């Protein structure tokens, strides 16, 4: 059986982090989210994987190549126009017909467990259904495709119902199994109100034609990974199941509690205190006297200086966090430089939920503690401070002593903290 992973989209709600990579290539727990899904498919016995790529596809292809290092065979199909999930899945019609077998299809930005894949294949072999859709239960289904079930047969799928009008709390989890008949339904699928070809519309065509379309209710953890704070939650999830692996150098006087991963070429200097689970990538220099708290994930080639505290954050490759700085509940992009004394606030004075800008709108993250989102290439001056929920754009710089209380666009220089005066980079 072949698996198809949909990873062509940008992830606009994750900007500016996705300006330089697709959302599925953002790191959590030390590796891209997409890699976890490849491993889950492999561990379920699926070795042939086709990735539907598009936006920033070079990042995906350069990382995974032909898949052999992960023990799988990966091929790629480019979705030139992103016209919806049915359009994306339709790209593999010729391959699937040649295989003459069912396919498993999954969104690339979800948590995927190998036991769930096995359950999906078992259900298919026992039922001979034309399509099976993995379902998960949520408290508020109004933002999702909601399923009406009769036994395990899907009778209808309602997209984003109004509050109180949902037929159930079971939603489409973005994991499917299809036999080749799905491609006939895709050919009959018209554009939705969003102007896209939706796979849920293809499934509704199958239901109307009397095809067997079943639901498989999953009890696994499920996260709608679309906004920055959800990546922090995902990072926590993967670190919680990690085990200690120390391949780097640990100097005398380092204290470690809980599971910690330290990759080859990294050094943890004396006086550093680590509360796991924590991930530290290759060729990092940490400390001395640094405090790394739970759920911190540090990429490759990162320097963390003396007396720095980092909590529940993702620090991407090539970034420097210099001495006497604090980073809490934040996502810091690649090749950033946080100057000495940079302080990131992660708690509102009124203890309310921290708001973050998503697609131009301030959205309550629902998190009591939430720091900042820095795109790649951000530079901060000494003793600069950042209020909770601030987003700093690609390659922007913040001057010494500045206090940042609102978002900064890409390629800007902030030179004054009171009016937050900005100018374009030359």
UniProtKB/TrEMBL annotation:
Residues 274-360 form the Mannose-1-phosphate guanyltransferase C-terminal domain. It comes from the Archaea. It is an enzyme of class 2 (transferase). Its EC number is 2.3.1.157, 2.7.7.23. It catalyses: N-acetyl-alpha-D-glucosamine 1-phosphate + UTP + H(+) = UDP-N-acetyl-alpha-D-glucosamine + diphosphate; alpha-D-glucosamine 1-phosphate + acetyl-CoA = N-acetyl-alpha-D-glucosamine 1-phosphate + CoA + H(+). Keywords: Acyltransferase, Multifunctional enzyme, Nucleotidyltransferase, Transferase. GO terms for biological process: UDP-N-acetylglucosamine biosynthetic process. Signal peptide: none annotated. One of its GO terms (molecular function) is UDP-N-acetylglucosamine diphosphorylase activity. Pathway: Nucleotide-sugar biosynthesis; UDP-N-acetyl-alpha-D-glucosamine biosynthesis; UDP-N-acetyl-alpha-D-glucosamine from N-acetyl-alpha-D-glucosamine 1-phosphate: step 1/1; Nucleotide-sugar biosynthesis; UDP-N-acetyl-alpha-D-glucosamine biosynthesis; N-acetyl-alpha-D-glucosamine 1-phosphate from alpha-D-glucosamine 6-phosphate (route II): step 2/2. InterPro entries: Bifunctiontional_GlmU_arc-type, GlmU-like, GMPPB_C, NTP_transferase_dom, Nucleotide-diphossugar_trans, Trimer_LpxA-like_sf. Residues 3-239 form the Nucleotidyl transferase domain. In the N-terminal section; belongs to the N-acetylglucosamine-1-phosphate uridyltransferase family. In the C-terminal section; belongs to the transferase hexapeptide repeat family. This is Bifunctional protein GlmU.
